[in-house]
Design a protein that fits this description.
Blueprint lengths: L2 H10 L8 H17 L4 H7 L3 H17 L12 H6 L6 H18 L2 H19 L10
Helix pairs in contact: 1-4, 1-7, 2-3, 2-4, 2-6, 6-7
GO molecular function: heme binding; oxygen binding
Protein name: Preprotein translocase subunit TatC
Organism: Bradymonas sediminis
């Protein structure tokens, strides 16, 4: 299933009114603050994100589109997210596992429990789409 199809499937579940724009800005900024400090994935992000302002704005737009149905996401001029990630030779499954762990921790710290659980459950779709070029996770078939 393509990234666009997965994103579409998330959006087809309908807008999630329990996620305010403020909620989205809070978790995006908190999450990427942790990413920048992380010993495993921080250095990879540092290689590709030279200016965090536009990236944070794009990610707020992305999650606002997914969760609220807003037409606020503008794709990077470098291409769709999966293609950009597939072209990063540094990325391994361990990076995506850490991304998921940080994402879940951040959601649990800044959102209501039901919001955090719902969104954490969907974050695996994102990790799967972005890491598809690496093949199945160890232990998966």
């Amino acid at each position: 299933m393509s990234f666009a199809t997965r994103e579409h499937n998330l959006q087809m579940q309908g807008p999630r009114p329990e996620f305010s724009r403020e909620d989205i800005e809070t978790f995006v900024h908190a999450f990427y603050g942790r990413v920048q400090e992380d010993e495993l994935i921080g250095p990879v992000f540092d290689l590709y994100i030279l200016d965090w302002g536009p990236h944070l704005k794009r990610m707020v737009g992305f999650w606002s589109a997914v969760l609220r149905g807003e037409r606020s996401y503008t794709q990077s001029p470098k291409g769709p997210p999966p293609v950009m990630h597939w072209n990063m030779p540094e990325l391994e499954h361990a990076h995506f596992v850490r991304w998921l762990d940080l994402f879940k921790q951040t959601l649990e710290d800044v959102l209501e429990p039901d919001q955090a659980a719902w969104l954490a459950g969907r974050s695996r779709f994102m990790a799967d789409a972005l890491s598809r070029n690496l093949g199945p996770y160890e232990g998966e078939t």
